[in-house]
Design a protein that fits this description.
Blueprint: H1 19-23, H2 26-55, H3 61-89, H4 94-104, H5 106-120, H6 122-136, H7 140-154, H8 159-183, H9 187-205, H10 232-239, H11 242-263, H12 265-272, H13 279-308, H14 310-330, H15 334-342, H16 344-362, H17 368-398, H18 400-421, H19 436-441
């Protein structure tokens, strides 16, 4: 069986819309806005959830780990359904609208539902909170990424260029979130509700291609723009693909541990940054700088990945992750912990751009959302589910530093296996993009 299953039109030799043309397109800014306000919610939650659970809800590290495990388990269960539904929907917004509605209730949920449940029973609270947050975050993010990646291809944008709005949102949310936290930690969640309302407005007005439009070939099976048939056979063929199996293994042990490592790093940082008045405010400022750097790296990353190939982009991501995890284990002064955190500015663009390009180059483009949901999000969710609880308990049992050493060993092992299984994508074109001329004439 070969790895190259593209049944959509190959567009080798047809350039995507240039950066300047993208900046003139209202759709570019609209999709960028979708990324911005969704990832504002994501960053507020991911930066402040652990310290909020520890300080405001009074939860133990083990139960905080359980929250993240439940988030991942629910996401794991939803991914194949979300992927299949989104591939069937094509460019329709129904599923993304559901995620936005869930996000809009994040403020009321934490104010009126979560805290009373936790005061009754921490484990029950962890389960309920994990289920809800999965709908908004770990399960919801796949819908946002898949919808926006497909819309970007349909309009000839480099995915990395429009995705940098998510990085800008992360930087903004981290900085503003630090001040919100200092005034009242509970307002973090109301800021998320506000972002979700703006996200809903942008989703309502975004224009997506219809059958017959030039960009509709981003999801069609042929040049006619006919609605693609998404069936079980295509999915089964994907699951038997050696490269896809290797890709899943890599995401299980690297993308998952990227998240698990960051889940409680703010707590670890605060333990060592004892010379500053408020470690959480300092940490939010560090994350702000990190994500600004991430946005800058995101601009140039598509060019690097096009040169070295998406497979090697993923391997490089794993190498940087190992350096960051082991560095945090052995060198723990405040300045170096800041440096280790800032390395994430390289990791995230490497991972995101490489994941999307590997999927669209190596597998059937008709089921790109399914490939993304299963290969990336579902595999990652399985890893987060297992590792969040295990390493959450490990933090309590043997400490953060020793746990980080074990994490580093796991990343090295799964990367070695994946390198053997995954075939190279070098020389294979990005499918589904329309030419600049088509976009202008549409």
């Amino acid at each position: 069986m070969t790895d190259h299953h593209h049944t959509a039109v190959e567009v080798e030799g047809r350039p995507t819309t240039g950066a300047r043309a993208s900046l003139r397109s209202p759709v570019f800014w609209n999709v960028g806005g979708l990324f911005f306000f969704y990832f504002a919610i994501w960053q507020l939650a991911m930066t402040f959830l652990s310290p909020w659970l520890a300080e405001e809800a009074g939860m133990s590290s083990g139960n905080i780990g359980l929250v993240f495990s439940v988030i991942a388990l629910v996401a794991f269960c939803l991914q194949p359904f979300y992927g299949y539904i989104q591939d069937r929907l094509g460019f329709r917004k129904n599923l993304l609208a559901f995620v936005v509605v869930c996000a809009a209730f994040i403020g009321p949920f934490f104010a009126f539902v979560f805290l009373p449940i936790v005061s009754f029973n921490e484990v029950v609270g962890a389960v309920v909170g994990g289920i809800y947050l999965s709908l908004v975050l770990n399960a919801g993010v796949g819908v946002v990424e898949a919808f926006n990646e497909r819309t970007s291809r349909a309009n000839g944008f480099e995915y990395g260029h429009v995705r940098l709005f998510g990085s800008l949102a992360g930087a903004t949310a981290s900085l503003v979130g630090g001040f919100i936290w200092a005034s009242d930690p509970n307002n973090i969640w109301w800021a998320g509700t506000f972002s979700a309302l703006l996200l809903g407005v942008l989703l309502f007005v975004v224009r997506t291609p219809r059958p017959g439009d030039p960009g509709y070939t981003a999801i069609s099976a042929d040049a006619s723009g006919a609605t693609p048939k998404v069936d079980g056979g295509a999915v089964r063929s994907l699951l038997k693909n050696r490269s896809f199996v290797g890709f899943m293994i890599l995401m299980f042990g690297t993308a998952a541990l990227y998240d698990v490592f960051d889940q409680q790093f703010a707590i670890y940082f605060a333990q060592h940054a004892t010379e500053v008045a408020d470690p959480q405010v300092l940490f939010s400022q560090v994350v702000f700088v990190q994500i600004l750097l991430e946005a800058a790296v995101m601009v140039v990353m598509p060019f690097l990945i096009n040169k070295i190939g998406a497979k090697w982009g993923l391997i490089l991501f794993a190498i940087v992750l190992v350096v960051r995890v082991l560095g945090s284990a052995f060198i723990v002064d405040t300045e170096m912990l800041i440096v280790w955190r800032l390395l994430a500015a390289i990791e995230m663009p490497l991972m995101l751009i490489s994941v999307m390009k590997y999927i669209t180059r190596m597998f059937d483009v008709r089921i790109s959302a399914t490939a993304y949901m299963i290969g990336f999000n579902m595999a990652k969710a399985a890893g987060v589910f297992i590792f969040s609880w295990v390493f959450g308990r490990s933090y309590d049992a043997i400490g953060f530093s020793s746990t980080y050493v074990v994490m580093g060993v796991v990343v090295v092992a799964v990367t070695a296996v994946a390198m053997v299984l995954m075939r190279s994508d070098r020389g294979r074109p990005d499918p589904g993009a329309v030419s600049a001329e088509q976009t202008v004439n549409a």
